[in-house]
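Kindly go through one protein, given below as sequence and tokens. The question is how this chain folds according to its tokens.

***
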Amino acid sequence: QDSSDDIEDVSLFDADDDVSRRSKKSKIRHPVASFFHLFFRVSAIIVYLLCELLTSSFIACMVTIILLLSCDFWAVKNVTGRLMVGLRWWNQVDDDGRSHWVFEARKVSTQGGKTSSEAESRIFWLGLITCPMIWVIFAFSALFSFKVKWLAVVVMGVVLQGANLYGYIRCKVGSRKNLTSMATNYLGKQFLRQTMATEDQAAS
């Protein structure tokens, strides 16, 4: 194992065990967190798309977008992930200079039920996955349209939102080995389904 990529699992704050178990799974129990989970990242995208119409100052647009992206990175990493899906991650360096990935996960209730709302979970993962993909599209668009001055902005969007996506995926599925295994299993299942569908068509 690479010494620069140690993984440590710790339990989430004990206060989360007091969450009511009677809440409906479809209910959004943290509306403020759900709002700000999407607000900063969607606002950064809107400002990027409309900045040339709103102002002629590139510096003002760039600073506004970077501030929104920074606020989004902090909020998603430290607040909304913990409240909405019971996950949190960070990377720390010990005294020996070794980098450690630390993951937190909310404890499962004694009855084995989930304390996370399904509606909040869908909002969280949809926003977490969709927005970085949009910034990747912006990056290719800026590159192919030779808008060099915007490359730094879109790269910042890709890096900050991509870092949160990467951290939460690893927090959800585990190490790189587990992530690779999951991808392999998924491709294997898809191949098996296609093979079975082809055999059914041939038999009919």
Remarks:
- Confidence is low (pLDDT under 50) at residues 11-23, 175-179.
- The first helix runs from residue 31 to 54.
- Strands lie at 6-11, 87-93, 99-105.
